[in-house]
Amino acid sequence: MPKQNFFQRTVSFTQELFNNYGQDDAFTLGAALAYYTVFSFAPLLVVAIAIASYFMGEDAVTGRLYGELEGLLGPDAATTLQDIVSNAYSTGDSLWATVLSVATLLFTASTVFATLKMSLNKIWQIEARPANNIIGFLVTRLLSFGFVVGLGFLLMITLIVNALIIGFMDQIASYLPALGPAVLGITSWVLATIVTAIIFALLFRFLPDAKARWKDIWAGAIFTALLFGLGRYLIGLYIGNSNFSNTYGAAGALVTLLVWTFYNSLILFLGAEFTFTWAKRRGFPIRPDHNAVRVIKEVRKVDGLKV
């Protein structure tokens, strides 16, 4: 078989990537993840804000975070999330009410990661061995919650670094006024891409029941982060030009959040498919760990069609 050139390899890789994307029913997985994320979004924010606020002022954290959310989702959805988070902090005077609220918060916040883990396992053709006791369930939940805590620390680091960059850019702007905004925009984009790539690398490496080389994980994480940045811009344009409040009334903010999470879920799963295909093409396919088994896809033909 003749050796393929770069263009042929790229076309072949892309075909395999999107074939796997369709066979794994990424749209259904994305819809499921978006559904759980909508209900987990506020608890995730509460936990992340609580962790970041431990090292920084709560007003600084929430102000910056809600500013980003407003830019992504629009003012209505951002205000709705802000109200939900504010209500979550108001647990009342009862000790039991506080304990129940915190327990519910932690369980809900970890649900989205448990769902994401199952989706990544499916995309990487891996199935976890069934846990026959409560210990397995608790371990999964604790691992999922660990990612929630990690997001809080990443949020804190991002805010600190971003504040330092803004201060540095202000110094540059005082000497080179025309150059300051351009450098600030590029630096902010690079910072956001780096942080996003780190998040995806941690997700791909530790969340699924799989073993993969760090080289392949980073390749997939960087690809996903770049795709995520482009998607963020395009989704922002779509949401900005779609008046969901007029169409859906009071549910407009919820629909906005659902649309945003759905499209970002599709991007995340495309990145996971890229990682799987990349590792396979590099000769080091992703393997199940000791808690999982490989799933063999069976392709049958019915009336000439693959099913």
TrEMBL record:
It comes from the Bacteria. InterPro entries: Virul_fac_BrkB (IPR017039). It is a multi-pass membrane protein. The keyword tRNA processing does not apply. Its main location: membrane. It is found in: Cell membrane. The chain crosses the membrane at residues 33-56, 95-116, 137-166, 186-206, 218-239, 251-272. The keyword Lipoprotein does not apply. Keywords: Cell membrane, Membrane, Transmembrane, Transmembrane helix. GO terms for cellular component: plasma membrane. PANTHER family: INNER MEMBRANE PROTEIN YHJD. NCBIfam families: yihY_not_rbn (TIGR00765). This is Membrane protein. It comes from Neolewinella xylanilytica.
